[in-house]
Write a structure and sequence with these properties.
This protein is of the alpha+beta class and 129 residues long. It has one domain (7-126). It is built from 3 helices and 6 strands, in the order E-E-E-E-H-H-H-E-E. The protein has helices at 34-53, 58-87, 91-110, and strands at 7-8, 13-14, 17-18, 25-26, 117-120, 123-126. A two-stranded antiparallel sheet has the order 1-4. A two-stranded antiparallel ribbon has the order 2-3. Strands 5-6 form a two-stranded antiparallel sheet. Helix 1 (34-53) packs antiparallel against helix 2. The longest helix has 30 residues, at 58-87.
Length: 129
């Protein structure tokens, strides 16, 4: 049996590489959101790499990538909790929903509200604070 729960696969990047698609974030397979999120992640990775190549600070660009993927996972977990709470009533599902809710709570506490960049097409643009 394989794990099928939403998760970030660490590390997301390293020296001269960046993880994309299913090698970076795993979404719940029942949701059907994996392909769309993988494509958005590829666009984001492209923008991050272009930002680094244009002279933006690599650590800031990669941190932005990390935060955006974590926000995507948080949104996904939030949607899963809502869907599974209304669709499944068994004790096993209630246990899974509880685990998801705890994970969501932890992510909410760790993720900053404001980001240093935003996507502008396939480019990173600095946000003026």
């Amino acid at each position: 049996m394989l794990d099928a729960f939403p998760q970030i696969i660490e590390p997301l990047y390293g020296n001269n590489w960046i993880s994309i698609g299913d090698s970076s974030v795993a979404f719940d397979p029942i949701s059907g959101e994996g392909v769309g999120n993988a494509l958005r992640g590829c666009i984001l990775a492209t923008a991050v790499l272009k930002g680094i190549a244009s002279g933006m600070a690599p650590d800031r660009c990669l941190q932005y990538y990390d935060l955006r993927l974590r926000r995507a996972l948080l949104q996904h977990v939030t949607q899963c909790i809502s869907f599974y709470s209304s669709a499944f009533a068994s004790e096993k599902w209630k246990e899974e929903i509880g685990l998801g809710a705890r994970e969501k709570h932890d992510m909410d506490l760790l993720l900053p509200e404001k980001l240093d960049f935003r996507l502008q097409g396939t480019n990173l643009a600095e946000v003026k604070q």
